[in-house]
Design brief:
423 residues, alpha+beta, 2 domains, seven-stranded antiparallel β-sheet, two-stranded antiparallel ribbon, 13 strands, 16% strand, transmembrane
Length: 423
């Protein structure tokens, strides 16, 4: 999955020996057992979508191997990050003894389910031949794509090949009731801040409905779909058991965007009420204590909003230019979060720390006002277009932040900056 399993690199050094031990299937396959290993989600960013591996066990020889498509080289963190950002991240198939994997499973502290694949000898032979081919040094590497080529889609494709395409036939054209965005949201519920970053940063490409076949990029959905498949001999998955038990992760009971909206909107509203009570004196540059506290409340909400919004506004066009991930391009949130919002942090700091407007020269004052008006029009126009259905990107969570944004821009326009008066 996204950023999967750095720790498996420790096991990667045994890949050559283990792969050679399973280069070709033995002639008698009755004693070959194949299992699907499914890992529950974890609380780290790179474990939030779970994980998938295959286990191949020879009950006669005792050979017991794990096939894991989640191996990558983190030896150079800068190079790794750059390759990931550009969409050029290489993952590998790792093959190693099962007893090493069990130690790793227990260390991870996550639930692990083991389900037996009920394959006949011909199906096992197809799968084992494919695994042996994939384990060759020249075939181990693949270009990682978080939705379409990852640790879950690789075993999905191999299993589908072994059972004659029945999995694809049953799922490829059948839509789910989810979009990719829904699945990303579900995966990052336990990491609210990453949830916010991806919600704002990813574009309309992830708002199309996912087919059942595509949903299997997520390991838990892969297991769920395989449980529905029936072969001539019965269910594809059988003899399932909980291999490693662990406590369920605690899910936040709140919607992070609603909380952020409340944190921003409530002080802005209270601040506006206090400012209105002292608006005449503020416009004369002589705010009393009530007006000053109103401005401080507005600044308290405005500094984080416009700082974070400015960072988003700066990153989104850069992502469009430099990132290899198409899901980060042409993002309509660029109409709400603008790079120059970082400049608005300065007058907001004046309000928060000094309780008074920022005094500007005539030229700077006019530029600031024009920018604030432009920002108001862009944000309001984008929100109206989305509400009318003219924007395909899902903004139903980002929209919680729009009232606070509009209110703070309006307060800034009317009270947050002032033109310096002559002596």
């Amino acid at each position: 999955m996204i950023g999967t399993w750095i720790v498996w690199l420790i096991l990667f050094f045994g890949i050559n020996q283990a792969a050679k031990a399973q280069e070709s299937p033995p002639p008698n396959l009755d004693h070959i057992e194949v299992y699907l290993h499914t890992f529950d989600v974890g609380d780290m960013i790179y474990t939030n979508f779970g994980h998938t591996a295959l286990r191949v066990k020879n009950t006669e020889s005792g050979r017991d191997l794990i096939y894991n498509w989640g191996i990558f080289d983190f030896g150079d963190p800068l190079s790794f990050s750059l390759n990931y950002y550009q969409g050029n991240l290489i993952y590998k198939l790792g093959v190693y003894p099962a007893h090493q994997a069990m130690q790793r499973y227990r260390f991870e502290g996550r639930k692990v389910w083991q389900d037996k694949l009920n394959l006949n000898s011909d199906q096992k032979r197809i799968l084992l031949n494919k695994l042996a081919w994939n384990a060759l040094p020249e075939n181990r590497d693949y270009l990682y794509q978080y939705f379409f080529d990852n640790c879950a889609t690789r075993p999905r494709d191999f299993i589908d090949l072994a059972i004659g395409g029945r999995l694809a036939a049953a799922t490829q054209e059948i839509p789910t009731n989810m979009t990719f965005r829904d699945m990303v949201r579900d995966g990052y519920r336990v990491n609210p801040w990453m949830d916010v970053i991806l919600e704002v940063g990813m574009n309309s490409r992830i708002d199309r409905v996912v087919t059942r076949w595509e949903s299997m990029f997520h390991p838990l959905y892969l297991r769920e779909e395989l449980q529905k498949i029936n072969l001539d001999s019965g269910s594809l998955l059988g003899d399932g058991k909980l291999l490693i038990d662990a406590p369920d992760l605690e899910q936040p009971s709140y919607e992070v965007f609603k909380v952020l909206a409340a944190i921003l909107l409530l002080p802005a509203i209270l601040g506006l009420i206090l400012i209105q009570r002292d608006s005449y004196r503020i416009n004369q540059g002589k705010a009393d204590r009530i007006g000053a506290w109103g401005m401080r409340l507005v600044g308290f909400a405005g500094v984080p909003l416009f700082f974070v919004g400015g960072v988003f506004g700066l990153l989104m066009p850069l992502n469009w230019i430099f990132s290899g991930h198409g899901d980060l391009h042409h993002n309509v949130n660029m109409m709400i979060f603008l790079p120059l919002d970082l400049v608005l942090v300065l007058p907001m700091k004046y309000l928060m720390f000094l309780g008074r407007p920022l005094q500007l020269g005539a030229k700077s004052y006019k530029i600031f006002r024009r920018y604030l008006i432009l920002h108001l029009l862009l944000t309001l126009g984008m929100t109206i277009s989305w509400a009318m259905g003219d924007v395909s990107q899902n903004l139903n969570r980002v929209a919680y932040l729009v009232p606070a944004c509009l209110l703070l821009l309006g307060i800034m326009l009317n009270f947050g900056i002032q033109e310096k008066r002559g002596n």
